[in-house]
Predict the structure.
Amino acid sequence: MIKHLMAQGDYVAIENGLLVIKPASGKPVPTDWLKSEGDALIAQILDCTDTPAYQYTHHTTAVEPKYSSDRLTLWFRSASTDSNVLIHFNVDLTRKRDSSKHKAGGKLPEGKFIPRKNSKFVQWWQRLKLTKPRYISEYHEKLHLLKPPLFTGTTELAKNHQVRFQDKKIELLSVTYEDIKFSVTRRDLIGNSSVNHRGLIGTGHRVEITGPPVNAMVTDDSEYVSDLVRLKNNAIRATYKGTVSTPPEQQTTDEWLAAYKSTV
């Protein structure tokens, strides 16, 4: 898929953790195609460039009586191995002031936490340029913003045998157009290899997802995709009357084009 897009002159990259397409054809992006193929396209990019990537899944909190701070753990999933990778931050899990319903020192509800001002967590959040909560006690309500993008970082094995990000360094993933083009040209394997980024799409190239691809984005100046992709999308939606034995979603590019032409 990625090889065909680049052959058409389309710009494809991963920028700030999101898929960016800047096509050259001037044709509208088929929403159905982006919905069904976005994650598969990302998986192909990760596969052909040998790029490790991680997706945020959830968070947990824990009281640490042996230390001066309690702990927030953010859980990420490796797109290549489907294994968990963690990052820990020091936070407070107790109330800092009295209110009409609660007293200072009381335990916060499960999942809630209060990072300290200028803590490593707050600094990391600022580097990501994510929306800040109204109050420092409401960061738990903004953690969903970590789910759309992909992240990258160096991992290490901790003493408890858990895999974590080294030195709490985890950033938004970027894979340039030049890197993708070089890898595609060098390896010449897109469309034939078995993608192993199970964290994104399982074990195959094509997936059906119920909502918009969580890692796909079309920018204001990239509202189009190549004619080849448009024809693929039309071929999927066309009515087949016994002319094609293979289901459209399982066909190769050449089969899609042939099927499309047979319906017009």
Notes: The two ends are 23 Å apart (CA to CA).
